[in-house]
Amino acid sequence: MSTDNQRFVVKLPSGETRLILVTCIATIGAVSNSDHQLLVSGKAGRSRWLGRRPRTRPVAMNPVDHPMGGGEGRASGGHPRSRNGIPAKGFRTRSKTKFSNKFIVERRKK
């Protein structure tokens, strides 16, 4: 977007505006074979060949295993959380004391 004597102002695809050193090198372009993510494995075994283990839904777990577990019958999970209890959606996890915070000109829009 603009240039100082030492830094560029770059707008990232996320919408964040950030300062980057002029001496940095970047590659611009698109990833090849973008259709790769559209492949369907077809069966559980093919995923296992690739080293992907089965995933158990947190709602199906016990309260001792996950914050969204437990409840009588088919109870819904409650607020979306990670395994260690941190809210999963919309919760800001970036540290307020991070060194690179001073290089962020404008945060991404919600």
Describe this structure in words.
- By secondary structure, this protein is mainly beta.
- The chain has one helix spanning 44-49; strands at 2-3, 7-11, 17-21, 104-106.
- 5% of the residues lie in helices and 14% in strands.
- A four-stranded antiparallel β-sheet has the order 1-2-3-4, with no helix packed on it.
- Strand 1 (2-3) and strand 2 form a beta hairpin.
- The longest helix has 6 residues, at 44-49.
- The model has no long low-confidence stretch (mean pLDDT 87).
Summarize the structure.
This protein has 110 residues and is mainly beta. The chain is built from one helix and four strands; from the N terminus they run E-E-E-H-E.
Keywords:
single chain; flat; 4 strands; mainly beta; four-stranded antiparallel sheet; 110 residues
